[in-house]
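Lab meeting, action items carried over

1. Structure of the two-component assembly. Owner: GW. Status: complete.
Input record:
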Amino acid sequence: MYRNGSIRFKDINFFYDKTHALKGITMDIAKNRVTAIIGPSGCGKSTFIRLINRMNELIPKSRLEGKIMLAGKDIYDANIDVVDVRRQIGMVFQKPNPFPKTILENISYGLKVNGIKDKAFIASKSEESLRKAALWDEVKDRLNDSALSLSGGQQQRLCIARCIAVEPEVILFDEPCASLDPISTAKIEELIIELKKSYTIIIVTHNMQQAARVSDFTAFFYLGELVEYDLTNVIFTKPSKKITEEYITGRFG
Amino acid sequence: MNNKTSQRLGFSLLFMFTIITLFFLGAIIYFIVSRGVKVISWEFLTQFPRKGMTEGGVAPAIVGTLYLVLGSTIFSFPLGIACAIYLCEYSPKNYVVNIIRMSINNLAGVPSIVFGLFGLTVFVKFLGFGVSILSGSLTLGIMILPNIIATSQEALLAVPQSIREASLALGASHWQTIRRIVFPAALPGMLTGAILSIGRVAGETAPILFTAATFYTRFYPKSIFSEIMVLPYHIYALMTEGTHPHQQAEIAYGCALILLVMVLFVSGIAVIIRQRQRSGYVS
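Predicted assembly:
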């Protein structure tokens, strides 16, 4: 019934101390598809995807109700190690955040912390990941340079490569192009479309065109609620709720 | 008075105060160098004092100062960093930890002579280390511990949260994140703090007055239980004791110059490390 990589949210409520950030969210996310999460600032988009790799746990006084199932398993179950969850669910952040280390060290980090010591394997995996992230040709002669010497767009692709090196099932993108120029953005979008062959992808974005271009499904969040969730071309051509239409046509947000 | 005039007046005043500050700094350096440089010679740097401190060199005091710097750093650097990492990265954010933090900050304000008395009571007497390198190093180490903790905490806080998240999101544990990402990124900042406190260790007199220093010794220290000559205390002794105040004063200025050069050298290293770190990551 559940395949790997599909995610089910059941009656999710999330609180930051007393703020009710997500309200009664139930939805399924399809495997090997791109699902875009859109909505105005503060609607709970980022909170929502950070629940999937349990990053919100780092925030004191936060509280979750409901269940999140990855491939049929409750990822918040007491018997499940948070480290395993995060290994299966990669994340690319809003601002590129490479480690202040070399390009190669950035890629191999995820493998090393997961206990892989075989140098030949790490080397081949690193190259493969950089190729998949369409960065190999640009960095192959400078793998031992600092990752911080790369441009913003390259840094973001490095972060994507770093993420796929550990072979997650799901990749979360939290506004991955927010700080990038249009050319870098186009490259990342191409990459996302390419990556969905192998991964389930969820992308939070403020950019309507981006959601329309890259995603198969779109969910519209407003004030912590899931207002509408459907095929992307349905959402963008004939949304069933008036407020969705107002948002995607730019009347507020 | 219109805006332009008041602005010009404001800038002129600020400029003047800056000049006054620089003047004092320059005056100190000029004063020490001009009086101290006369006695500096190879002999002065490498020989023992002779003829009731009026001739010869101050080599044992230089060596003693280096030992204390080394000893106190070995003791306080690992301890301070461990403490900072715990407080910054692990400790729950509750009132007990806040009290610990406040206590550490208050410790930084304790007068150094109080540390000296503490060292005398605990290390010299109670633990029986005697007046020695060990007692002095421990006393100085405790004195600079709050500074090392504070600068290490700052260095840890300066590591962007985003790279901690990146590491955790890749499936690294909290400990792996600290050891492999946060600590290496914070290390240059921590070293800067530690090196700056070395300057303080080299210059302090009060904490070693009863715990490590002696006015005169004929030998280099044999072990960590030996008492030693130390530059700042030597200056103090030269100016207050002895029977040849004029010749002794000359030597005291020589010592002051050596101490100044040592401290400036060490601070220079700290500045270089800090600049490397700045150019290293800006994100």
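2. GW to write a short summary for the group page. Key points so far: The domain at 42-280 of chain B is CATH 1.10.3720.10 (MetI-like fold). Chain B has one domain: 42-280.
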